[in-house]
Write a structure and sequence with these properties.
This protein is of the alpha/beta class and about 260 residues long. The chain has a single domain, classed as Rossmann fold. It has 8 helices and 7 strands; from the N terminus they run βαβαβαβαβαβαααβ. Helix 1 runs parallel beside helix 2 and helix 6 packs across helix 7. The radius of gyration is 18 Å and the shape is globular. The termini are far apart. This is 2,5-dichloro-2,5-cyclohexadiene-1,4-diol dehydrogenase. InterPro entries: NAD(P)-bd_dom_sf, Sc_DH/Rdtase_CS, SDR_fam. Pfam families: adh_short_C2. Keywords: Oxidoreductase.
Length: about 260
């Protein structure tokens, strides 16, 4: 095991990031490492998670990041992920529940199996992850649980009931976890993050699904945002660094909206 990095806003932190193969998850891993954390990137796409770890290690040095293949809907695989954090990082005190999906269909057209899959990945994964990770996190407190929700968990749409409901569940689950940890004196905080549109590979799929050029889609989305631009992954990852750091030690059970002003309308 290499020495813990001594500089940065999260120096010495040990972080597990789900959905770390691309997009926001990869950005979280890179920014946390740049600020001094050692990182375990997990994803059902194990090759993608390994690529993220390789990118981090190329920049920050070998032994900064590790990776495993990880189905976040499987409690047994969560146990393996926590064991991997113990083995590779030496413990765990930052858990970023980033893995998530969206599904198509309004209340009449959404298939129930898609509804269930959306909740399995977006919500049940956080239940399993926090339940499995808290014992190890308690040993390495102070700690921070960061659950990536969405502005769609606070503002509804007629076209995405499964996504709206699942991300709203993440919002309220985060508050319950925060209160539990505080009541038990664990010195572990829990907060939710609520982004709006961010330029990740998900938007490539959205453009393809609607037969739109990516730039046309970006312009269309930007018009819906008061600041008039779509977010970049680091706009969200920088908030994750803040929540992971001791700078946010008085913040728990809160929701951080990164939405360009949408929720202010």
């Amino acid at each position: 095991m290499t020495e813990v990095l001594g500089k940065g806003r999260v120096a010495g932190k040990m972080a597990l990031v789900t959905g770390g193969a691309q997009g926001l998850g990869r950005a979280h891993c890179i920014r946390l490492a740049q600020e001094g954390a050692r990182v375990l990137a997990t994803d059902i796409n194990g090759d993608g998670a390994a690529e993220t770890a390789a990118i981090v290690n190329a920049e920050m040095g070998a032994g900064t990041a590790f990776s495993i293949a990880h189905d976040v809907t499987d409690p047994a695989q969560w146990e393996a992920a926590v064991d991997a954090a113990r083995e590779h990082l030496g413990g765990l005190n930052v858990l970023v529940n980033n893995a998530g999906i969206g599904v198509a269909g309004n209340i009449e057209t959404c298939k129930f199996e898609d509804w269930q899959r959306c909740f399995d990945i977006n919500v049940n994964s956080i239940f399993h992850g926090c339940q499995k990770a808290l014992p190890l996190m308690r040993e390495h407190a102070p700690g921070s649980i960061i659950n990536i929700s969405s502005i769609a968990g606070l503002i509804a749409s007629d076209t995405m009931p499964a996504y709206n409901a699942s991300k709203a569940a993440v919002w309220m689950l985060s508050k319950s976890i925060a209160l539990h940890c505080a009541k038990k004196g664990m010195n572990i905080r829990c907060n939710s993050v609520h982004p709006t549109f961010v330029d990740t590979p998900i938007l490539d799929g959205t453009a393809k699904a609607h037969a739109l050029d990516k730039e046309v889609l970006m312009e269309k989305l930007a018009r819906q945002i008061p600041l008039k631009f779509v977010g970049e992954p680091n706009d969200i990852a920088n908030a994750v660094v803040y929540l992971a750091s001791d700078e946010s030690r008085f913040m728990t059970g809160a929701e951080l909206k990164l939405d360009g002003g949408i929720s202010a309308m």
